[in-house]
Amino acid sequence: MPSLVEELVLLAIEDDGGIAPAAGQPGFGMALLGACLVELGNAGRIDVDLSAVLVLDTTPTGHPALDGVLKTIARGEAAPVAQWILRLSADAATVVRQTLDGLISRRVLRFEEARYLWVLKERRYPLRDGREQQDAKLRIMETLLGEQLPTPHDSVLLGLARAVGLLEGFLSTAEIGRLEDRMAKVAGLDLIVRGVEAAILEDQAERARAMMMPL
Amino acid sequence: MSDTPETLHITLEMVGQTTFVCPRGRLDFGTTPGFQHALEQAVNGGGTAPSAVIVDCRELSYLSSAGLRGFLVGARAAQDSDVHFGVCALQTAPAEVFKAGGFDKIVAVYPDREAALA
Fold first, then answer.
1. Reduced to 3 states, what is the DSSP secondary structure of residue A159?
2. Which of A104, A148, A159, B46 is buried most, with the most CB atoms less than 10 Å from its CB?
3. Site from A50, A53, A57, A186 to mutate, B interface, most B CB atoms within 10 angstroms
4. In sequence order, what are the residues at sequence separation of 6 or more whose Cβ sits closer than 8 angstroms to the Cβ of residue A19?
5. How many H helices and E strands in chain A?
6. Do A191 and B69 make contact, defined as CB atoms within 8 angstroms?
7. What is the mean pLDDT of residues A162-190?
């Protein structure tokens, strides 16, 4: 089964192998960093409370994306999740690249580079058989349409996908609206997801402030 | 009754058809496996499932993200067995974590044991 970070990347791959517009937003990188923190928590490297991300063990996990994040957190001053997500956001592109590389080497994705208008390059990552992406979507749908409480993994996947608009890739706006109550209840039952949501809001507010600054 | 490493002591108490799981100390990454095991024991009830499992948090001093995951796993196990699941007597700091994680929307929260039994 793919990791949480990998599943989020897979949800951002469109049917033709293109990358969903939501993945071009800064929030997507923050969601991936949040997923890294969740994975590090599951692996016993960190724990999180309302005041800080606590490093428990600096032993590498063997996953390049997770180990890069762990190393940075272990070296830095203690801070709450949202602050760490903002601090780490410059590393988000590396996490995306390492995750895509891992999925390509495990033959979940292919890499294609095409040129259009003769000069512009376009990168595509077509799914090989789409099983892993389909499984993530199905589990999200089961969580949303069922009455059972989700697993911690699925609750976080849904919460992070929702926070960055990845659900729009396979659910209509009307469906999302209809499922809003259920989502509010079961999505992101985790302090890290709440931290990611807070970081996204803070980043958006900062960008809005910057746009309103006189030139 | 079980001890988990270092900082969490858990007791189970039956009151009628309700099992109270009573953690004392810190619920974090190191102590969550023992807590989850205690919740599973309480839900299974040694063969006869109780009608409710309530985590009595009056002596729970600390709750982390890992501990919240333990609550979710326990709540799911209770739901699978058709057992009511709730918490009571949450102290201020753990209550803030519980609320911040959104758990007050999926788990019944009671001020004390009496309210949980009512």
1. helix
2. A159
3. A50
4. A12, A13, A123, A125
5. 10, 4
6. no
7. 96
Instruction: Check CB contact of B37 with chain A, cutoff 8 Å.
Output: no
Alpha carbon of A69 to those of A32, A73, A104, B96: distances in Å?
11, 6, 21, 27
In A43-130, which residue ranges form alpha helices assigned H by DSSP? 64-75, 81-88, 92-105
Q: What is the extent of the structural domain holding A150?
A: 4-212
* Cβ burial, residue B80 (10 Å; 0-12/13-18/19+): exposed
Number of domains in chain A: 1
Question: How is residue A148 annotated by DSSP?
Answer: S
Query: Would the CB atoms of A41 and B65 count as touching at under 8 Å?
Result: yes
Domains annotated for chain B, with CATH where assigned, are 2-117 (3.30.750.24)
pLDDT over 70 for what percent of chain A? Answer: 100
- Residue A129 CA, distance from chain mean position: 22
Q: Which of A91, A90, A89, A129 is nearest to A109 (CA)?
A: A129
Measured between alpha carbons, how far is B38 from B22 in angstroms, rounded to an integer? 9
pLDDT reported for residue B6: 59
pLDDT at residue A122, rounded to an integer? 84
